[in-house]
C-alpha cells in the first residue's frame, strides 16, 4: 500500500496569528536547540571521560603487559639458572660416579693381584710343608735305620759280652 498523503496544515491567514504562531515555533526551536546543545555538551563530557578512561585502560594494559614480560623474563632467567645449576650438579655427580667406578676397578685389580700373591705364597708354603714332611719321613726312616743299627750293634755287643762272661 502506498503511504497516505499528509494532510496540509492550515495556516492562519491573519498576520498577527501567523506572527504568534511563528514566535511559538521559534521558541520551540530555541528550546530544542538549547536542549540539543546541552545534550551535545553532556555527550562531549561523556566522550572526554570515556577517552580518559580508555587512555587509562590502555596505559594500565601496557603496564600489565610490561609486568607480564618482566615476570616472564625473570621466570625464564630463574628457570635457566636452575637448569644450568642442575646440569652442573648432574655432571659433577656423573664425574664422581666415574671416579668411584675407576677407583673400584683399580681396587678390584689390586685385590685380585693380592689374592694371587697370597695364593702363590700359600701354594709355596704348602709345597714347603710337603717337602718338609717328606724330609721328616726320610729323616724318620734314617733315624729308625740308625736306631736299629745301634740297637743291633748294642745287642751284638751285649751278646758278645754275655758270651765272654759266660
TrEMBL record:
<protein>
    <recommendedName>
        <fullName>Dynein regulatory complex protein 12</fullName>
    </recommendedName>
</protein>
<comment type="similarity">
    <text>Belongs to the DRC12 family.</text>
</comment>
<keyword id="KW-0175">Coiled coil</keyword>
<feature type="coiled-coil region">
    <location>
        <begin position="108"/>
        <end position="149"/>
    </location>
</feature>
<keyword id="KW-0963">Cytoplasm</keyword>
<comment type="subunit">
    <text>Component of the nexin-dynein regulatory complex (N-DRC).</text>
</comment>
<keyword id="KW-0206">Cytoskeleton</keyword>
<keyword id="KW-0282">Flagellum</keyword>
<dbReference type="InterPro" id="IPR033585">
    <property type="entry name" value="DRC12-like"/>
</dbReference>
<comment type="function">
    <text>Component of the nexin-dynein regulatory complex (N-DRC), a key regulator of ciliary/flagellar motility which maintains the alignment and integrity of the distal axoneme and regulates microtubule sliding in motile axonemes.</text>
</comment>
<keyword id="KW-0969">Cilium</keyword>
<keyword id="KW-0966">Cell projection</keyword>
